[in-house]
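Bug #2210: token dump truncated for YtkA-like domain-containing protein?
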Amino acid sequence: MTTLRSRALAAALIGLGLFATAGFARADVKDYEFKLLDPVITAGKDKIVAVKLVNKTTGQPVSDAVIFATRLDMAPEGMAEMATKIALQPGSTEPGVYKFKATFGMEGKWLLSLGAKLQGETGTVEGKLVISANK
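Reproduced locally. Full output below:
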């Protein structure tokens, strides 16, 4: 009976637009983060970088993000102007994993900057990840 009342209350609050103020708020974009699956890569052409987007509060992967901003540059080495092209690769088979193809023209530390929109969330999930390119 209590569950039925809770559901009825939630339905009523949704109808009134009060769902978020009643303690049923969605996650905040700060509750999500990108993680590098491998922070070290071999320098060279057409390298694949994989990142996982997770909800930090639940630990669950997020597979339906729309990645709309990507940049890869050598800012950690003091050379932010040294940027390279990066391209999102088609669908991954792993939940929450997004793969990118890029050329790491030289050894050193590279900064991968990402921006993503999540369905049902306001704001942008942003990530700044450092990748080490070695020989």
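Output looks complete on our side. The helical segments are 2-16. Marking as cannot-reproduce; reopen if the truncation happens again.
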